[in-house]
Structure formats: C-alpha cells, structure tokens
Amino acid sequence: MTSLGEAFRARSWLFAPGDSRRKMEKAAASAADIVIFDLEDAVLDAAKAQSRTMIADLLTARPADASRLWVRVNPLDGPHTLADLAAVVAARPGGIMLPKSRGRADVERLDHYLSALEVAAGIEQGSTKVIVLVTETAEAMFTTGSYRGAPRVVAMTWGAEDLADSVGAAENRNPDGSYGFTYELARSLCLLGATAAGVAAVETIQGDFRDLAGLRARAERVRRDGYSGMLAIHPDQVEVINAAFTPTLAELAAAQEIVDLFAAHPGVGALGHRGAMLDRPHLARAQALLASGGRA
C-alpha cells in the first residue's frame, strides 16, 4: 500500500485524448497539476493500439514531467485494460486512473497487474499511484466507502454521465441545470468515501468548457464542501480551477490567526474570537487550510 494518499494534493486534472499527440502535448504544456492521457472514452476501439504506443512514446520523451502525466486505462471488466497497462507502465506514468471501479476488489486486482509490470520494467514496486472513478455504475455507488487502505489509491473522483447510462436515465440534470438527486448523492458519497479512505476528493468535469464563470462558482462551492481538486476537459478550464482551489491570502491569514490563537492558549478547548466561539474542529480546519496553501 502506498503511504502517499493523505499527503497527495492536486488542484486541476486535465484530460487529453490519447489518439491526438497534438492535444496531449498541449495539455502537458499547460499549468494543470495533473494531465491524464485518456485511453478510455476518448479513443475508439480501432485506435486503441496506436494510442497506447503514442502515449508511451510521449511519456518516454518527457521524463521531467513523469509525476504529473497520468493515464486513464479502460475498465477492468472489458478486454483492453491489460494491454493498456502493458503498453504504458514501462514508460513510467505518474499514475493510473481506473474508470468504472466497482469497489476495493478492482483496485486490488489493478495493484497486482501494476506490481508485476513494475517489477518487469525495473520500476519501484508500488510507486505508480491510482485515482479511482467510484460512481460510474449503480453497483459502485454502494462501495464508495470500501477504499480505506486500498493499495496505491491517492484520490477518488466521481462521474455523472456513465452513472446516468447505468440507471437508464434520460437526463441527469434538473431544469435549472443543477444535478438531480442521484448525482448529488454520487458527489456526496465520493467525498465521504475519500474522507474515510484518507485520500483526496476530486470533483467531476464541467462539460461546458466555455462557461468559465459557472466553472469558477462550482469549483469554489465544492472546495467549501471539502473537495481538493477538479477534473478538466479543456486547457482553458485549468487556470480557473487552480485559482478556485488555491486558498486566498485572506483565507490563509484568517487560518493563521486561529492557529496562533490556540497556540497562545495551550490546553484550552474553546475560545471566543471575533464574536464567535471556536473549538478544536475550527483549529483542525485552519491547520488543513494552511497545509494546502503550502504553509504547514
């Protein structure tokens, strides 16, 4: 099991289709914290073999970026996953995104595959990280709390489109554009599952990449809820996401004030501050905010 889950932080996770070297290079040159070369939804079956080679070549050509260049492989219940892994692991991607995970058993199976391929390639066993897509099927909704201690997992994210297909829904949004109850439930279960597992919670994509104002509002809202990053489908979304998940100077100053206040009163469980009562959960949130802002 990797020990990096709790410490792993990334704000923006940018997808790039694995069948386009130009788009992958553009994504890699962006300010995204993580770039995910996609072998699943973005690539037709007939193009998967060529895309694997293209991704492996690009990973090999950019060793300095290795830690931030990840690959989304195909689901474990299909015919492509082993071929995906065999093609890309030796090129040392920073991590693997596992789609349509049905629960902890899928991660454990992926770990076995990765371990064998790492040993064969002379890579440190266990060093390839994993982010799991945990709500893409109806079955998976019931296992979001099963990932605590799962090998390699450093982050969890969720998806609404595949879930809608899984349940046979005609639409996953309300008339006002917000997600329907089932999909808000998926978001909550992902957050709770990630928290229980001690790993990062990553918000799903916003499909309308031109609506940057809407993206900003949504990203800021889910950060307040506890999410630490968000998936992106276009480079224009990256700057907005990075800003939304970066604490402001005012937020950092307020958090530092709370930490300093408790430090000045050791052994005290609750303190009055600016007309409000602060207790230990307020201190914990302030410390977490400072850590996420690089000021542990």
From TrEMBL:
Query: Which Pfam families does this one have?
Result: HpcH_HpaI
Q: Which GO terms describe its biological process?
A: oxaloacetate metabolic process
Residues that coordinate or bind Mg(2+): 136, 162
Per UniProt, substrate binds at 72, 136
Keywords (alphabetical) are: Lyase, Magnesium, Metal-binding
Q: Give all residue intervals belonging to the HpcH/HpaI aldolase/citrate lyase domain.
A: 11-235
Q: Does the record carry Ribonucleoprotein as a key word?
A: no
Quote the protein name from its UniProt record: Citrate lyase subunit beta/citryl-CoA lyase
Q: Which organism is it from?
A: Nocardia alba
